[in-house]
Amino acid sequence: MNEIIFLQSLGNLLTKNGMDASVLSDDCAHIETPSRDIIATTDMVIDRTHFDLSHDPLDLVARKSVCVNLSDLAAAGAKPMGLLVALAIPRSWSQRQSQDLMTGIVETASLFDCAILGGDTNSTKGPLTISITALGFKHWRGTPKRGHASHGDLVFVTGELGGSFESQRHLRFTPRLRESTWLMDHINIHAMMDLSDGLASDAKKIAIASKISIILDKSATPIHRDLDFRSTHRLEHAMCDGEDFELLFTVSEDEAIRLEAAWPFQTKLTQIGRCERGNSTVFLVDESNHKAELTWTGYEH
Amino acid sequence: MNEIIFLQSLGNLLTKNGMDASVLSDDCAHIETPSRDIIATTDMVIDRTHFDLSHDPLDLVARKSVCVNLSDLAAAGAKPMGLLVALAIPRSWSQRQSQDLMTGIVETASLFDCAILGGDTNSTKGPLTISITALGFKHWRGTPKRGHASHGDLVFVTGELGGSFESQRHLRFTPRLRESTWLMDHINIHAMMDLSDGLASDAKKIAIASKISIILDKSATPIHRDLDFRSTHRLEHAMCDGEDFELLFTVSEDEAIRLEAAWPFQTKLTQIGRCERGNSTVFLVDESNHKAELTWTGYEH
């Protein structure tokens, strides 16, 4: 598609969504940062790897490309500010398809009060590839990093886990921005991340970065109803399927009491384990108090 | 390639280049912005579109992926701060190839005093796709936008134009950051942009954004020596080949005198035209003062 026509239609789309279309006239975006530091993250999604255009609708693909980035901002306790969007569009696509994709991206950004700051469109002989960089404002309390868990912390997760890819939940999920903002405002969060590769693999990342061990309670794992009708391996699916985009975080025992008393959302909140002194290992403990190292590995992109 | 191995080798690479490797342990980068606004830009390059791995060396491909973004920062008068790098790597690649690519990206960033702030690596069935977002600090004077040219301005270009793609100059060019910083420090720049699609097409963008017409002087166009041995259409090549990554900018007549007297670089500086009241048209004027609308169009990505 001709770049000028594309930019014009994108300009109309931005204006329609109450956004500033003047960003399109230059190659760079200017971000005013009065006194707040910036948080930046980038995530790329590719057809046949992160979605499948042979059965996934384009508006949901667009939604996912934005939401995976917003989920990273949520994990950093940041408030979304804007996106830079780089597209590699298959040569065979019609102008209509490109516009539908951009519409989906702009409308999703708008839904989460996030501007489009810039972009780049290219054609490719390969699969549709959407690369988004999200910028957000840092919370005044700081950024809860993976390496901030302490021994004695309790481990929490939002929502329910597993079956996201098969149920198309990975295309429809809502990034936990509201929950993250509330947590940052009210609770002293130690470590936090979003679950993209699966609890087993992502808990290990916190254990490694924080140099502690994590003991997960087998019976506490919130298993998603998308997995209800499977007879076997439900726990393994919940822990390893990945693409949950829920928040995994740790707080001290005292904060945990305040947290559970004050949690204001319908979104489920579950204490799933605790942190102990140790050698960056993740253990699973069952009802009879048998403790075994968790060796399941999560989904690798 | 396993993500953890990849991140470890990338961590070593960052440390070796004197960069902060701690950015790799979380999904988001934290950018301190004491009192300076941020400039952001994104550019994606794809095998067989922006380079060709069947004959272009990987280190130069990496260099280009960084430099096209830094050239956008130069055009905005900004000082590079850091990059977010998203990669779609062909499934057939060896670990060695991926590492060579990252080495090229990190070393180029280092060369221009630019940090790696974050990234995302994926495998693809399609061609190598490198998507980089560059963040920079705004110059205290502001940002010279495409829409800031005034009638009466003189139009300048750095360097020489044409033949960039065929000579592989598009892989080796040096983004005009030094020149841009000097210009911002010393000269009141009106409009500025970098030449990526070719002078004919890019001058039109300034004409449209500034609602003026631009009269280019046919005999003044600095034709690159890469075009020396072509017998015909040299001017058209210089104006339309694109991928020059030189600075195109406008200043008032008074500033132009100061500029030409003070220009401290070996990089060629040429006054190639002037801005007039008009209807966003670009004209070419020849030695006999014949003026005709420039209808050549530049390279479209």
CATH topology label of the largest domain in chain A: Phosphoribosyl-aminoimidazole Synthetase, Chain A, domain 2
Kindly estimate the percentage of residues of chain A that lie in beta strands according to DSSP.
25-35%
**N-to-C series of helices and strands of chain A:** HEEHEHEEEHHEHEHEHEEE
Return residue spans of chain A where pLDDT drops below 50 for at least 5 consecutive residues: none
Distance between the termini of chain A: 30 Å
Oligomeric description of these chains = homodimer
Number of strand elements of chain A: 12
> What is the molecular shape of chain A?
globular
How many individual helices of chain A?
8
Q: In the CATH hierarchy, what is the superfamily of the largest domain in chain A?
A: PurM-like C-terminal domain
Strand order in the sheet with the most strands of chain A = 7-9-6-10-8-11-12
What is the domain total for the residues of chain A?
Answer: 2
Largest sheet of chain A: 7 strands, mixed
Label the CATH architecture of the largest domain in chain A: Alpha-Beta Complex
Q: Supply the CATH class of the largest domain in chain A.
A: Alpha Beta
Radius of gyration of chain A: 20 Å
Helix content of chain A: 25-40%
How would you state the average pLDDT of chain A, rounded? Answer: 90
> Which structural class best describes the helix and strand composition of chain A?
alpha+beta
Most extensive interface: A-B, 61 and 60 residues
